[in-house]
User: What shape does this take?
Amino acid sequence: MLALLLSGCAYIPHKPLIEGSTTAQPSSAMPVVANGSVFQTGQTMNYGYQPMFEDRRPRNVGDILTIVLQENVSASKSSSASANRNGSDSLSFDATPKFMAGLFGGDKANTSITSKNDFSGKGGAAAKNTFSGTITVTVKQVLENGNLQVVGEKQIEINQGTEFIRFSGVVNPRTISGSNTVASTQVADARIEYVGNGYINEAQQMGWLQRLFLTLSPF
Assistant: This one.
């Protein structure tokens, strides 16, 4: 029974990088009172109205925007250090009194001490990450300065597992192209998450008991 309980607690749930809802819905439409005019007050773009001579860029909650993922990050670091220390001491008696000859005579008390200490260390690290693709997100909030806070999620089920791609960030409307796209490198506070679930993903995770032994073990 104890083994079954431990095996049931072996998998540690993954904490998502992007928490909360990954979509946004526009507010409900307000009733419009027809007054015979071509332009109806209250019929804003949030309710499906778009002017004839304006582009189709997102500018309200619930509008969609395509993010072009172009992440290519590389970093490297190396360091080295060395230290040397040498020392020597000697003690000898060239002349000794006759009554001390039995104790110090014949080079019996001559001593020589030599010490040497060397240290050298080297370290290096390198990392490279590449992420490309596209994901369409929705506007979650329109900030006071006009920037758009966007969030979105894409789910792809392959065989026995599901792949999740989540994205969130703040977009400047001026960086949105005419095809309603923006590069991920131009998104502020970008959060990109690519994870999966299923037994294949669980098999790649280390259990909490193994983590405990790995932390406590001195070897």
